[in-house]
Amino acid sequence: MPPRNPNQSRSNSFIPYLAFIVFCAIFVFKVDIIISQTIFTARRNVDIVTSAPTIVIGNGTFHRHFIVSWGESRARILEDGELLELSLDKLSGSGFESKKEFIFGKIDMQIKLVPGDSAGTVTTYYLSSEGDHHDEIDFEFLGNSSGNPYTLHTNVFSQGKGEREQQFFLWFDPTQDFHKYTILWNPKCIIFYVDGVPIREFKNLERRGVPFPKDQPMRIYSSLWDAEEWATQGGRVKTNWTLAPFTAGYTNFSAQACIWSYRTKSSACNSNDFKSKGWLKTGLDSRSRAQMKRLQKKHMVYDYCKDKWRFPKGPGRECRFH
Question: Which SUPFAM superfamilies does the entry mention (predicted)?
Answer without folding.
Answer: Concanavalin A-like lectins/glucanases
